[in-house]
Amino acid sequence: LPQLGAGVSLPGVLASRCGAKVILSDNADAPACLENCRRSCEANGLHDVLTVPLTWGEVSPDLLQLPPLHLILASDVFYEPRFEDVLVTVVFLLRKNPSAQFWVTYQERADWSIEALLHRWKLACVDVDLETFDANTSELAGSNLPGNHSIQMMIV
Ligand SMILES: C[S@@+](CC[C@H](N)C(=O)[O-])C[C@H]1O[C@@H](n2cnc3c(N)ncnc32)[C@H](O)[C@@H]1O
To answer: What GO cellular component entries does it have (predicted)?
Structure first.
């Protein structure tokens, strides 16, 4: 499963530690972010996680060469209102892998919405209540950041 815009890569690292075959990706124009992905793997003793440059909205050889996928992960990739680039990459991967799902967490910022774009790209999504996996608390894993933000999750 790939994680898009992985940065520090927590979801992908966790998935890999749980036994998934994971590909971490970040912006092809931001080698330092890809390096962060690699360092997160090293710090967590993961040696079989691939790191692939993928820029949202771009059809690159790296995107075309991804193996069959079951799950696409992303966290905090809808943080500036250029949402369509992310969705173009997600739509490309979901059309190529029709049984795959896109799981994404996002922080509510301003009053931006991706609803119209989901309609335009004919994507159906469900909201996931954080309470279903005990993540609706103001503190998680020793961090009080969750209490300072409004975090949501959806599956496309
Ligand atoms: C707000 S950070 C979130 C990082 C990480 N997923 C997390 O939750 O901590 C956004 C990430 O998206 C990546 N990103 C930004 N623009 C991108 C683009 N056009 N294509 C691919 N990745 C991009 C950034 O490099 C960064 O790692």
So the answer is: cytoplasm; nucleus
- Identify whether the C-beta of residue 1 lies closer than 8 Å to the C-beta of residue 8: no
Which residue's CA lies nearest to atom 8 of ligand 1?
Answer: 75
Domain count, the chain: 1
pTM reported for the whole predicted model:
0.94
The tens digit of pLDDT for each residue in 89-112 reads 999 999 999 999 999 999 998 888
Q: Is the CB of 105 under 6 A from ligand 1?
A: no
Per the structure, the complete domain to which residue 105 belongs is given by 2-155
Separation of alpha carbons 38 and 32, rounded Å: 10
Q: How far is the CA of 95 from the centre of ligand 1 (A)?
A: 22
Distance 26 CA to ligand 1 centre (A): 6
60 — pLDDT class (breaks 50, 70, 90) = very high
Eight-class DSSP state of 155: E
